[in-house]
Design brief:
- The complex is a heterodimer of chains A (469) and B (762).
- By secondary structure, chain A is of the alpha+beta class.
- Chain A folds into 3 domains: 135 residues, Ubiquitin-like (UB roll) (Roll), CATH 3.10.20.30; 86 residues, [2Fe-2S]-binding domain (DNA polymerase, domain 1); 228 residues, Uridine Diphospho-n-acetylenolpyruvylglucosamine Reductase, domain 3, CATH 3.30.465.10.
- Chain A is 33% helix and 21% strand.
- A 5-stranded mixed sheet of chain A has the order 2-1-5-3-4. A 5-stranded antiparallel sheet of chain A has the order 8-9-14-10-11. In chain A, strands 15-16-17-18 form a 4-stranded antiparallel sheet, with helices on both faces.
- In chain A, a hairpin with a 6-residue loop joins strand 17 and strand 18.
- The longest helix of chain A has 19 residues.
- The radius of gyration of chain A is 23 Å and the shape is globular.
- The relative contact order of chain A is 0.09.
- By secondary structure, chain B is an alpha+beta fold.
- Chain B folds into 3 domains: 146 residues, 2-Layer Sandwich (Aldehyde Oxidoreductase, domain 4); 193 residues, Aldehyde Oxidoreductase, domain 3; 239 residues, Aldehyde oxidase/xanthine dehydrogenase, molybdopterin binding domain (Aldehyde Oxidoreductase, domain 4).
- In chain B, a hairpin with a 5-residue loop joins strand 17 and strand 18.
- In chain B, helix 6 packs across helix 7 and helix 17 crosses helix 18.
- The termini of chain B are far apart.
- In chain B, the strands form 7 sheets. Chain B has an 8-stranded mixed sheet, sandwiched between helices. A 6-stranded mixed sheet of chain B has the order 7-15-14-13-8-30, sandwiched between helices.
- The chains are: A alpha+beta (469), B alpha+beta (762).
- Chains A and B meet through helix 2, helix 3, helix 5 and helix 18 of A and helix 1, helix 17 and helix 19 of B.
């Protein structure tokens, strides 16, 4: 039995944990404000909000409900547009109406929910952060400028409301119905009840489901009839911590949690730029790190990023027997992992870059944001005072059947000073160790040229004045 | 009697907006359905061309929950859905001609049962050769309709006199409509042998006609109702009929209600898109850069059936010369039959393809002559009195005016200097500017379709109901219809309700298309409201004994004074006096005609002009690009709804830019759609649009044939997007002047990077 708050109501259902939240709200609750656009998290028409406690505070995150496992909302508060409607228009709704930010209207509810969630989570809303909040919402009619104007109208008129009183303040200001004021208490009671009665839902331990952002796209039918082990909120798999000088990231850490970690921001100042290039707010809010790594997509953004950081993978069996292997040895072939069926990924870890090391991530796709890379690449490089490369790790996606650590190119470049002729020679080595194919994300010749350019881009970030053509 | 024309048109936004932001607007899949509505699932062809050697549905039909499985043999009427030509079966018979062609329909109690049945069906197909290239199809003589040629002057002789002649190939890709709401229909039987269908269609009458043909019933037994669409863009003009026909057939065969809403991936692979074209051009200029002669041959990739291809082909020819006055022109177009899904209408309807080719030709000439393209463009813009290659003599042209205003108001010279300075100081980042003028003809090119009707009721409590043939799909036509009724009746907009579009209330409608929906239906509403107003005022005049009565701004005026009468009181009296408070309005565009035997005539009510300046920046390391700004002077006439019209210009621009940049419809050589999901087919997101879009309306009264002199606005702005292609191209050549230029849209980051490094950098 899955139990949660849906808008102002307590809901208990025996629908499958692996079925989608979207189908449940639309077809079993007839909350038809939430629309179906693509069923793969790529349009945002089905965006709704999920509230849960984070560090003792109730926080709402926007998610694409088409790839949200129903089981993952157990004990949480799910908010659809019907749950934010008031007798008058909320300021979010009014801004979209007044700026004509809606034409056919089919995507509009998704924008309303993303922006409502944005007003609930951002203490100092700006136009820029408002735009980030709708980076997973596609509109085919407006050309977005009217939506931008609505966001500006919203952020201009909304003064800063801080901390714990935010929900109450938003209720008072007519953003949210009054019932929101009781939600923290109701949710606490619900979560207490769930933890006493039972810990969760019957599970088949061989089917592991995290955020659902890949499995519910690839095989929703199978997931629906399975009884997946829901790991997204397993406490042992959460957290970002330091241990023996290494930084550890729990397997179920969401991308949003990576983005919001002060610890990581300090260690990896380039991280916000990387994360902006990875999917959308709604997907980052639920996609797990481990999901991205074990999916073994040849162009998985975090596989590539952490390969560039020369990270390790920590595996464990149910009985608790663990082992650690370098991420670069984790991938053995197309969708093949150096992992036994009974082993699960529990964390990844990396050595924080030392002083003077440059970390850079490059990704090129048809559309810069919310797209899958044609080629992506990460690099960790140190160039000493003499201009010599002393440390180097390079990775590349989209050029091999699996996320590729560019071992030979690294070996070739370490100990040398970058200049035009060296780069040309390094490219020869690089081209030898990759094997891109023609596909919908680009022809082989393009991918070969692009990876050359991205490796150059890494060097250019480290040495801004360098030129190769 | 006081004239009401001096009263401004009531201005207001989208009347549906409140429903949209609260999620209360109802789209097809949101409609409450009857209990036990059946679930429908199409089995579509897995290969693009082949002979069906085995189709075994026996074991599938016995799966619990499966009600029936319908194939070609189960069609009671004609197994045919072709709109213009009868060349497209509802269900494949014997052979399949494109991947995604419907083979059968599974009717089941649940979606799960339907899915299980689909897996149990045995289908074997012997593959046959697949043709996806229009030139190859042409060489084999595979045409969907006869080829057409538009001609003016004597290009052959004129080329002899040209100082410069350039020729080449220009190619454009397709474009997926990506209406956010997929196709769909919900059907149920009505009493005395009828079927009612709720359809997500731009063409209710086309759906009605198709269902009547499939079921072998007269049209009066089929009622089609449309509330609104979650986007159409042409994709639900002809291609909505398939889904309507399937749902109606299921309802007819089972006697139960049935709903069909395809999964996005099925919608993507089964439906046609904007036509890809491969075209040859030849352009000749004199030493003063006047274009003396232009020749073009278009190979349209029509797909496996005609659909609307012949009409789209024609509009390519109408717009072959875009905004340019060229004395000698010959343009020939071939509609080529390939094994792709039948390509179809998409905002611009063949016009964008024609315009892209002439812009490529001009760019080619300019690049070869070492001058910016706008020097050639500017010298050749159309003026009043020019006779277009199709015989229409232009009047009220705004090509030069919008161009000049854009240059001056946006200070093009300054922009050019800034770009030059930027390019001189940045090695790996380059900017490029392009100017895109447009001249787009308004009217259906099929003269017969330029007609519309409206039904207006004033109820006895004074509330007003308006029905038209127009379908609201985000273009704001409902807002404009309400404005027309409010202004004509002289009452507040809140009194007026726009009804669903229903074939029972308004018959024989043209689809909401060709940018003409507001003009045609608005003039029909005007006609109906005038009739009612005349009758009401006659009652008022009789009652007051005054010859000077009117209704304005929701007040009843007698002898130029506001009377004590309210609208409600007046209507109540009219009803008591048995006045007819309903009217049917009719409109047929006057003056237009076209003779296909001579390819000459006056097909358009008027033209819409405009000029856009696009500024792009290319990252020459990565091959990616961004747009700093697009600045537009748009000829909108006296825009009757500024908010709606600005929305159309901005939205159309971005759709056009998407077509020219990131939107790449990829089929493999076997005719299988590779860009088959939103993860592989990308349309602009909020980050992809220009940092700034400036839209200024020319704000000069449009012609009488435009509704309230407010010009049609749906399609023309899309073609401003073509400027994006050339702005990027100009940035590429700033980085690598020796690059080998080809004119192949879309300009994806892949093409940009390959072009940047296509030759060694000097």
């Amino acid at each position: 039995m899955i139990t949660f708050l849906l808008n102002h109501q307590l809901v208990q259902t025996d629908h499958p944990a692996g079925s989608t939240l979207l189908d449940f709200v639309r077809y079993h609750r007839r909350l038809t404000g939430t629309k179906i656009g693509c069923r793969e998290g790529d349009c945002g028409a089905c965006t709704l909000l999920v509230g849960d406690f984070e560090d003792g505070q109730l926080v709402y995150r926007s998610v694409t409900s088409c790839i949200m496992p129903l089981g993952n909302v157990n004990g949480r508060h799910v908010v659809t547009v019907e749950g934010v409607n008031l007798p008058h228009l909320s300021p979010v709704q009014a801004a979209l109406v007044e700026e004509n930010g809606t034409q056919c209207g089919f995507c509009t509810v998704g924008f309303v929910m993303s922006l409502t969630g944005f007003m609930m989570t951002h203490h100092k809303p700006t136009k820029e952060s408002g735009i980030t909040a709708v980076d997973g919402n596609i509109c085919r009619c407006t050309g977005y400028k009217s939506i931008e104007r609505a966001i500006t109208r919203l952020t201009d008129t909304m003064e800063t409301v801080s901390g714990r009183d935010r929900l109450a303040a938003l209720t008072q200001k007519g953003f949210l119905p009054a019932y929101f004021a009781q939600i923290p208490e109701r949710l606490q009671v619900l979560q207490h009840m769930l933890s006493e009665k039972y810990r969760g839902i019957p599970e088949d331990h061989n089917v592991v489901l995290g955020g659902g952002t890949d499995l519910l796209v690839q095989r929703p039918e199978n997931v629906r009839i399975s009884r997946p082990r829901l790991v997204a909120r397993e406490i042992d798999l959460q957290g970002i911590w330091m241990e023996n000088g290494r930084c550890f990231l729990g397997a179920s850490t969401t991308v949003t949690q990576l983005a919001e970690s002060d610890l990581l921001q300090k260690m990896l100042p380039t991280l916000p730029k990387v994360i902006k290039l990875v999917s959308s707010t709604q997907i980052r809010n639920k996609a797990t790190l481990a999901g991205n790594i074990v999916n073994a997509s040849p162009i998985g953004d975090f596989s590539i990023f952490f390969l560039g950081l020369n990270a390790d993978v920590h595996l464990s069996t149910r009985s608790g027997r663990g082992r650690t292997i370098p991420l670069r040895d984790f991938y053995t072939g197309y969708k093949q992992l150096a992992k036994r069926l009974e082993e699960h990924l529990t964390a990844i870890s990396f050595l924080p870059p030392e002083e003077g090391v440059v970390v850079n991530f490059e990704k090129v796709c048809k559309r810069t944001h919310l797209d899958i890379a044609s080629v992506n690449s990460a690099c960790m490089i140190k160039i000493n005072e003499d201009g010599m490369i002393t440390h180097l790790h390079l990775s590349a996606g989209g050029v091999a059947p699996y996320p590729k650590y560019l071992e030979k190119t690294c070996q070739f470049l370490i100990g040398k000073k970058p200049h035009e002729a060296l780069f040309k020679a390094a490219n020869e080595v690089l081209q030898q160790e990759i094997a891109p194919i023609n596909d919908v994300r680009g022809q082989e010749a393009y991918k070969r040229l692009l990876i050359r350019q991205l490796v150059f881009a890494h060097l250019q970030v480290a040495l801004p004045d360098i030129r190769f053509v | 009697m006081k004239q009401t024309s001096s009263v401004p048109i009531p201005s207001f936004g989208n009347p549906d907006a409140i429903g949209h932001v609260t999620g209360r607007s109802l789209y097809l899949d949101d409609l409450p359905v009857m209990q036990e509505t059946l679930s429908l699932l199409v089995l579509d062809a897995p290969v693009a061309h082949g002979k069906i050697t085995r189709l075994d549905i026996q074991s599938a039909a016995t799966i619990p929950g499966v009600v029936t499985i319908l194939t070609a043999q189960d069609v009671p009427g004609e197994n045919q859905i072709g709109g213009i030509l009868p060349d497209e079966p509802l269900f494949a018979e014997g052979e399949v001609h494109f991947q995604g062609q419907p083979i059968l329909l599974i009717v089941a109690e649940t979606a799960e049962a339907a899915e299980a049945a689909k897996k149990a069906i045995v289908l074997e197909i012997d593959p046959l050769p697949v043709v996806t290239d229009p030139r190859e199809a042409y060489a084999k003589g595979h045409l969907l309709s006869p080829s057409r040629t538009f001609k003016r002057g004597d290009p052959h002789a004129a080329f002899e006199k040209c100082a410069y002649i350039f020729s080449g190939i220009a190619e454009n890709g397709g474009q997926e409509h990506l209406y956010l709401e997929t196709q769909g229909a919900y059907a149920y039987p009505t009493e005395s042998g009828g079927i009612k269908v709720h359809s997500s269609t731009q063409g209710p009458t086309a759906v009605q006609r198709t269902i009547a043909r499939i079921l072998g019933l007269p049209m009066n037994r089929i009622e089609v109702d449309v509330t609104r669409l979650g986007g159409g863009f042409g994709g639900k003009e002809d291609q909505a009929s398939l889904w309507g026909a399937l749902a109606a057939l299921a309802a007819w065969k089972t006697g139960k209600s049935a709903k069909l809403v395809p999964h996005r991936m099925q919608d993507l692979r089964m439906t046609g898109k904007r036509h890809p074209y491969s075209s040859d051009y030849k352009i000749g200029l004199d030493t003063n850069l006047r274009i003396l002669a232009y020749e073009a041959t278009y190979y349209q990739n029509g797909g496996a059936a005609a659909d609307l291809s012949p009409a789209i082909l024609e509009r390519t020819l109408f717009h072959a010369t875009n905004s340019y006055a060229i004395p000698n022109v010959s343009a020939t177009a071939h509609s080529c039959k390939t094994h792709l899904p039948p390509n179809t209408a998409f905002r611009g309807f063949g016009g964008p393809q024609g315009m892209f080719v002439i812009e490529a030709a001009i760019h080619h000439a300019a690049t070869a002559l070492g001058i910016p393209a706008f020097e050639i463009q500017e010298k050749n813009l159309v003026q009043d009195g020019y006779e277009m290659p199709y015989g229409q003599v232009l009047s009220d042209t705004k090509a030069i005016e919008t161009w000049r205003n854009a240059r001056e108001e946006f200070d093009l010279d300054h922009m050019l200097k800034d770009v030059e300075a930027f390019n001189n100081t940045h090695h790996y980042r380059k900017k490029g500017i392009a100017i895109m003028p447009i001249c787009f003809g308004i009217s259906f090119t099929n003269t017969m379709m330029n007609q519309a009707r409206a039904l207006v009721h004033v109820y006895s409590d004074g509330s007003v109901s308006v029905s038209t043939g127009a379908v609201e799909m985000g273009q704001g036509v409902n807002a404009k219809m309400i404005q027309v009724a409010a202004k004509t009746l002289g009452i507040h907009t809140k009194r007026i309700r726009l009804e669903t579009t229903n074939t029972g209330r308004v018959a024989n409608t043209s689809p909401s298309a060709a940018s003409a929906t507001a003009d045609l239906n608005g003039k029909a509403v005007l006609d109906a409201c005038k009739q009612i107003r005349t009758r009401i005022l006659a009652v008022l005049a009789e009652m007051t004994g005054s010859g000077e009565v009117s209704i304005e701004n929701d007040y009843i005026w007698v002898n130029q004074n506001v009377s004590g009468w309210s609208w409600e009181q007046l209507i109540k009296i009219c009803h008591t006096k048995r006045t007819n408070l309903s009217a049917k309005g009719h409109y047929a565009t006057p003056e237009i005609h076209f003779d296909k035997t001579r390819e000459k005539g006056h097909p358009f009510a008027y033209h819409v002009y405009g000029t856009a300046i696009t500024l792009a920046e290319v990252d020459c390391i990565r091959g990616t690009y961004e747009f700093d700004t697009v600045k537009i002077i748009h000829d909108g006439g006296n825009s009757m709804n500024h908010m709606v019209d600005i929305g159309q210009v901005e939205g159309g621009l971005i759709q056009g830019m998407g077509w020219m940049t990131m939107e790449e419809v990829v089929y493999d050589q076997q005719g299988k759609l590779r860009a088959n999901a939103l993860s592989t087919y990308k349309i602009p997101d909020i980050y992809a649009v220009p940092r700034e879009i400036v839209v200024r309306f020319l704000d000069e009264a449009g012609p009488e044939l435009a509704l309230f002199k407010s010009k049609a606005v749906g399609e023309p702005p899309l073609m401003y997007g073509i400027g994006a292609y050339f702005a990027i191209t100009n940035a590429i050549t700033a980085f690598n002047p020796t690059t080998h230029l080809t004119y192949t849209a879309p300009m994806t980051p892949e093409k940009v990077l390959l072009a940047l490094y296509s030759s060694s950098i000097p």
